[in-house]
Amino acid sequence: MALHFEKAEFASRLARLTEKMKEEKLDALLLFAQESMYWLTGYDTFGYCFFQTLIVKSDGTMALITRSADLRQAKHTSILEDVHIWVDRVNADPTLDLKNLLVEMDLLGARIGVEYDTHGMTGRVARLLDAQLTTFGQIVDASYLVSRLRLIKSPTEVAYVERAADLADDALDAAIRLTKPGADEADILAAMQGAIFSGGGDYPANEFIIGSAADALLCRYKAGRRKLDANDQLTLEWAGTYAHYHAAMMRTIVIGEPMQRHRELYNACRETIEAIETVLKPGHTFGDVFDMHARIMDERGLARHRLNACGYSLGARFSPSWMEHQMFHVGNPQAIEPNMSLFVHMIIADSDTGTAMTLGQTYLTTADAPRALSRHPLDFIGL
To answer: Which positions fall inside the Peptidase M24 domain (predicted)?
Structure first.
């Protein structure tokens, strides 16, 4: 089997999950998030674009229902033994197959949690599922149960995050080598992703972000490439990825002579991220991190140019996003604890002057001060 963890670690995760299920009086849990299945069993696929779910009973019994294309995938990449196939056919309703399986597993009338808030659950699937199960038992939203358990990383997970961070650094090195007037964004992007693949890494859970000139103010990927001017700005957001674990970074590189506004915005980013490091530790919350970000940015007159979030938890994720549920935004009560891998980003898009500046890296929290996982300093990058 192509497992990335010892079976003892999977057993520990299942024990933590079933304990939490008993606390919340859940007889069973239907997992639709691929990262939940991966974390719990090692199951590794992009087949979640179709209907599939992992049933977990409070006694630790597990059963997967999926399509035939993923039968061998499940057997080869996971610890799962009980795999059921629903058949592709005209007007297929795999939620009926699921309900029949739940009956076989003695779950009629049970209290069942469902992961609704995930890319593996489409609106159509949710409607079909609710239609089948509304009178079957007590159905509750348990979207964040496994997600919260995954916040704290095990020693093996930390090692994978650290390896991902090394690969992210390699990607930045590759970008810097190529970035100059006349350079093609396509070559820079290819070099960054190539460095990660060459280092034994994986595809990221979402596309790298690359944009220059006016596109440097964007913080999402878009199609299309251009060549850099003699005086330009290049925004990059990417993640090193290893065994699906992500370590994200973000930088705006200035080509040629920086504008004074570039320097001003960089200083704001640097001051803010260093201030955040003082609260990115136990005794504080995710909301405290955002409050620090907002206070400094707003004091500098940048309220209109900043975002309403400044980072999030990272871990093993699948397309279309490497972002986890827990984000740094106003009022988030999630406590910061040791062994969380957290991406902090400063993103300033000054549309008035057409100036972009970003600064971001992944941290591992400890019992005290956070540890930056990048070997690169937070210095201004001008080429």
So the answer is: 161-366
